[in-house]
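[scheduler] slot 2 assigned
[scheduler] job type: sequence-to-structure, two independent chains
[scheduler] chain ordering preserved from manifest
[runner] begin chain α
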Amino acid sequence: MASIDRTAYPRFKKSVPPQELHDVFTPSPKEIEWAQRATRSDRHLLALVIQLKAFQRLGYFPRMEEVPDAVVDYVRSRLDLAADVACDHDSDRTRRHHRALVRERLGVNSDREAARRLAEKTMRAEARVKDNPADLINVALEEMTRNAFELLGYSTLDELAARVRAEVNHGFFFGIIKRMGADDIARMEGLLQVPPGRRTSPADDLKQSARRPSLSRFKQHLRHLRDLDLLGPTQVWLEEVPKAKVEHFAAEARVLDAPSLREMNDDKRIALVVSLVHVARVRARDEVAGMFCRRMAAIHKKGRERLQEIRERQRAETERLWGVFGRMLSGAREAHAHGEAAALPEVAVYERAGELMLKPLVDAGGVAKVSQEHEEISAHHGNNYTGLMVGFYRSHRAALFELLEVLELKSTSADDSVLRAVAFIRTNRHLRGEYVPDRLDGCEPLDVSFVSEHWSKTIRERGRPGVFVRRQLEVCVFSYLASELRTGDVAVVGADSYASFLDQLMSAEEAEGKIAAYCAEAGIPDTADGLNDMVQGLLYEHAARTDAAYPDNADLAIDEDGVPTLKRRRGRERTASALALEAAVSERMDEVGLLDIVTRTAHWIGWYRHFGPLSGSDPKIKDPLGRYSVIGFTYGTNLGPHQMSRHLRGGLSPHEIAGPAREHITAHKLNRASADVVNAFSRLDVTYWWGDGSRVGADGTQIDTWDDNLLAETSVRYGGYGGIAYRHIADSYIALFSHFIPCGVWEAVYIFEGLLRQESDLEPETIHADTQGQSLPAFGLAALLGVELLPRIRNWKDLVFYRPTPNARYRHIDELFGEDAVIDWKLIRTHWIDLMRTVLSIKEGRLSSSVLLRRLGNESKKNRLYRAFRELGRAMRTVVLLRYLNEPELREGITAVTNRVEAFHGFSSWLRFGNNGTIADNDPDHMELLVKFNELLANCVIFYNAVAITAALTQLRNEGHRVYGPDVACLAPYMTAHIRRFGDYVLDLSPPGVAQAHLELDEADQSERNGPGNA
């Protein structure tokens, strides 16, 4: 049975807040009039109104004894009834009559059989892509509500979900087995057997992620991929199973050991193992492609370093040759001056000059020696290091060609010149000569128009037409193959991250039927011309507004040479009253242990309800609240199960902590748990003064990790080794979403992923990012998502301002715009349907926004989507730049929110004190979980602090102090002085008092909300 707490099945809260009583249970005058006409006694009046309001809140009729006393008392008071009027029906007949009246008034369908059929149909369709019974129940609830059905009882829905899920999964299992042969099944069974001399099964090897991308690891992973492919064509066996279902089956197999899998029935066991193998094959392809790109990047880096070493070695030789050249010039000047003074004929002057110029060459070793030295030095001028890479390529050659055997590559555009070059070097792989003909027998010469000028000089030699330098050509082609894998112009068949994202887009026909509804929701025009008109209008409007405001703009100045400058404004200092309030609040916040904060928020919010076995059943542990609180603390602080077990008095063994953490908790469940905290936090009155969640800041911070994995890198930006915790923080200080990404990745590709995947009730409309958010495709995508992108802009002088039309000119700010920088509106109009296909695919979860931006972030010349998004982004970024220069409050708001993100990084780091903050793991999936655990812990502390601040402010007012909203806005829930982090921990599971959500302030200063920009 799935716990009701893990579903959206509506129930009364144990304690109903006053605000909810007012908003939900207040009967309208018309409702009161209706009830009075339908009843003849106060008792029946109260019972009928309670039934009405309860049904409006729940969607079904609860038993009268289930209605909280607070609700009954509130409704009784709104009806002006005496306190002794009881709330009950005096007979079943009256109860049935009242329910019929409510159903008639609300237009509710009470046909239980029809509701059951609808719920089963909905669950059966959803069970093809979802596996958790709670999710199936939730979608059935939504569908019944949408169709105005009275909700079925929870036990009925739970039984229905369990049966439907079992039937759908069994159908998948049977189909998989049916498409396999006896030998295939035997191979899958063999993966669960532990060979002699080993402690683990081959199935456990499938769960391991790639290690650091050294050459030896790269070769090892290529062999690993070959071995995986020999296990069988899993894509054929799983061809009728949706991707989401395969991933769930694989995740379930991943957390179970071989003995547990062997205990399952045959069909399910084989299906789970097949899914595990398939996901391992897909992941291995992505890992091999990523390692290949990293190895080629390393070869390029070594080539650049070798060029620098050569230049350093040749510096003295270069200076000597310049000395020779200087003496030659001196000789020429001397001969010229002497000729003029003596009036010598021109021929005599030239002869004299020749003698004087040849002498330095002879003294330097002769013309031949100096010429040779000059050629050696000239060979490395112009930053062309490509010819030096071949020395580092030789050790990689065999592995790189094996990569071409293992991976199936395909072009994602009509231009497949790089893949034709790949086929060319594969054909000539076994040649031994230094040169190779530039064409195959009977074929046209190989098209190398895609290579740069540097490479063009490297792969050919002067005086040798019709041939390539074989090894240099190979290095060149592998370099461009790595580049096109990164841009998405070449895809890996059977991969995920390196698959063709174009294949994931919905068709133009399907998109056309969804454009109108989506655009209405996003608040953008639903035609190409409409979008162009809107964006062009914004560009005209803000350009004209900025130009007109220039004379009065004290911050912006453009000098006579057209060079603009923007004065930096000082941040607002906090007032003395705000500082005094912060000190008074801190004095009234009682000391509390960090583990106690976790358990109290678990009591108040119930965020742990999302945790449990992947099968969807309830956890079979004695005290879920306590166990999951310990797990959240253990991994959120980065202590680890062994350290936590040592310091938890009378506590748990490391296995009792690590086991449920591994088997019951996923990234998705952590997202949901954190969303529960965010939602509860947003209902606190004090958050009104910090922000409403309409704005969010996105930025990353570097976290040290172990180094034997594919994710860890040296961060040039942050100066450490590990990965990046990339977070989305609301303007109200709380975290909405966290990623753990490689240091080498362009952070802006994840800028929208957090907004799209966060599961709280907040719906941010504006996103602030660091300077990496200035990407043109990101601005284009933001416009189509209906999101306002306002990044921090530091190098605005280096950015191009685009004109709406070639004739657009401005009196004061014309120097800001590029002369030939004009938006190509035709390009946007031409690719309108491609843009909409893309954004609709992202909204429906078919395509990740991070995958798209990763592919659009490398200026692919072949990608028409890149050009369309870039053009739209040019217009939208110019609008933002104009606003940035003209609106000081915009600049202040951007700074305020991005500063809150940086403050959260420091706060979460203070909580991640275990192992000195270093993530001691090499599994990227586990690293991601640890970052999300840390987010959950930080959000719990933020919620607790907000409750404690509310209590302290209430105490201050009770003591006679006046408390004003603008001063409260200057507080922040990142306080730590009252929190004990260290020492032995005691698990106190006694229920805390009610969390105070309501806050009353002195009204004198409540006339205007003080937002983050003014805090």
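[runner] end chain α
[runner] begin chain β
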Amino acid sequence: MKKLLSLPPNLVNCFHDVTGHDRSEWFCTNDPIGHKLGSGGGSTWLLEACYAESSDGKSFDEWLASDRRLLLHAGGQSRRLPAYAPSGKVLTPVPVFRWERGQRLSQNLLSLQIPLYDKIMSCAPDNMHTMIVSGDVYIRATQPLQPIPEADVVCYGLWLGPEIAKDHGVFVSRRETPSVLECMMQKPSVKTLGELLKDHFYLTDIGVWLLSDRAVKLLMQRSKRNGERINYDLYSEFGCSLGTDPSVKDDELNSLSVAVLPLPGGEFYHFGTSHEILSSTLAIQNLVNDQREIMHHSLKPHPAMFVQNACVGTAITERNQNLWIENSYVPSSWTLAHENIITGVPENNWTISLQPGQCVDIVPAGEDEYVVRPYGYDDKFRGDLHDLSVTFLGRPFAEWAAERNIDIDTIDGNADLQSARIFPACADVNDAGLVLRWMLSEPELKEGAEIWSESRRLSADDISAEADLMRLQQQRDLLRAANWQALARNYEHSVFYQVDLDDAARDFAKFNIPQPDAISDNAPLLTRIHDSMFRSELARIKGNEYQKNEDKAFALLRDGLTQQVLTEKQSPRMSVYGDQIVWGRSPVRIDIAGGWTDTPPYCLMEGGSVVNLAIELNGQPPLQTYVRPCKEPHIVLRSIDLGAIEEVTTYEQLADYHHVGSPFSIPKAALALAGFVPAYCAEKFGSLESQLKAFGCGIELTLLSAIPAGSGLGTSSMLASTVLGALNDFCGLAWDKNEIGHRTLVLEQLLTTGGGWQDQFGGILQGVKLLQTGRGFDQCPTVRWLPSDLFTQPEYTPCHLLYYTGITRTAKNILAEIVRRMFLNQSDELTRLREMKQHSLDMYETIQRADFNKMGMLVRKTWLQNQAIDSGTNPESVRRITELIDDLCLGYKLAGAGGGGYLYMVAKDPDAAARIKQILNSNRPNANARFVDMSLSTKGLQVSRS
């Protein structure tokens, strides 16, 4: 989705340099200077300007339909938020949320807004290519979005009380048809809203509108008169012409179909005034008060104080509530009060004593000037300076001017405070401090009066036009670099290890910030894991050796997952007759939603959620293990499918299980966990031979895996579970299925292959199910069983197809890079994993409702999610296969991590399934490619004796 931004003119020229955003994805312009176009006319101007730059020879209609676009209006004067008027409110820095993981220290209002808009647009019907939103709000949807209906206009709103709705636009609909707009009202009275409720609903407009191409073209027509642009408002004019009974009659606009939707779990935070940046930020920070959910516990003396990108030497106490310091140096010579906003202040040794409600904004202009702008917390920057109701620094401007012997009639632009030239530009930082003191509270300070009188003076509008935004950003970057060091030192009470550490490492490298001091070995384990991977990433970016710290992060993770199990020593005892064979056999699994969310460390931080099914191949459990006693005190390992055999006679041989790909790594590690190496055995023996004699026999363990390596069906995990299950019975260890699944996770950590828990539990437990865990190192899934009708009923069974592609890929290599990003709280990755978790719940509900078509389409979405998290999931060789059958499938995905192995397909119907078989059998990609019959396993892991 391309982003089109209407910005303050001065920001347009440097937006991409300030933000680092890609010019091909982000288009910026400003409304024509001197022309007020309104939100409707401004949208037209924005679209036409972008078309002029990027039409590539297309007609406007072709261009409009060729891509999806977000139009974001952020070009206002920002009279009531002077601190961020020059850079636009949309770039207001927003502190990291104390309860959130993966945010960036450099985040701003824009970066917080975009993800929801992206999500909404991705759900929009095909006829909608344009979304129009406001730039000074942060909107959250805490619940999944509902389907977006086909319409010409779709508007989102919130259920808000009349005391709030009276100050906004509202969407009115009849109770019988709540999603169909009857009319739109602008700022209706509380009485009007009360009368509406008799037979209507109303939603408060939050400024998120989706428009079809037809609606866009009509909006553009109404924004001009006789070919000339006019001031046309999207809400009061275009909006009030919409609905089944609109207040403005316009046949073409009245004919547009309009749907109104409540934003699910919607929250709305305005950042339009000085008061709101504090109240909204505080409200967001306090959304979560459960101390278990808050990832750091700051030592702030009052919650309503926010300091970011700043160097503060003065004392801050509980009396300084409603304090905002950003991009500023505030030395110990300053004294603060409350309701103070301080922005842009350069390094200084000024002696400043702020009174309640006094704010300071210093704006760089030109090569070396600093414009000094003090103002009041509640100043509106509107009205004639002679008017006693016009306040400046919280008092009548006329009173302030008289106290300083200023003749208002001599001030340029005195008809409006916004255009009044009263703010001095100083080339000397010390002069700036003196004139600031004079303007704030020292009218008798002669040096300050002289500097004000002799300086070039700018208005608030001039400041926005002349501000050197690159100088402003450079100061912010330098202060953030210093803050990184402080945050790292104070990690126990800061956001450091909860932020996006990938972004942090890039900042450390970019600004050459020294690596933080080593943290305590007593720090929480997850903190130490994050720390090690952060250090590894920083070294990698700098081109230094990084493997040692990466290995340390994985080793710490391994310790956390294995510690509890490995402290529980085992006492294996021969529990079968001398002629008995223990036979274990298991199905494999296909994950259809939520895969990757079960993988540590993500599941340890946020819990996992997966829907998968246990399947048999060609009517048989494909993984089998046989354990039998033998007279000789040794262990014999055999693999039928690999044709391999190994005799183990010493502990050293048995403990040598770290070689990935070795035919007997899994059974050796399983025997170790069963107590056949000293580290895991409750008793002490001098040798393996003496232990086996005490055990009562030697052991012959035979494996059969009737599945090719790299299948994606969770083969290695399920083979480990099968071996552990058989040894559990053979040795009388009394593990239940949950314990076998948990020990499989430990086994994979011992092998350093990593991995999550869904592979083994997907096969240990039969049928179709939703598996979920909470956060923490004790990853024991709860199971919600699902009906099997969509997989077993005659009309659906033929539609489930499994095709071995003959292409293999080792999951460990895929896993390592994805897990690395999890360690680093990488923002985009966490977002995708959270979407996958929610997707698993959507799949769960869909299967509960027995909606076959939607289930198949959700499988397709799973495949897209897997590709988003790992681009190597869908190589060209696989793409060539799926292109042949795409239109015959509701959905498909490669099993497991992807890249090769088995392709699971959900055909649209049995006829489509037959056609898929015909096509792929006629176009085999290699000699090993083939269809394999799959059926739902009704038993899961089975262990029996002869």
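[runner] end chain β
[qc] chain β: The longest helix spans residues 827-848.
[scheduler] slot 2 released
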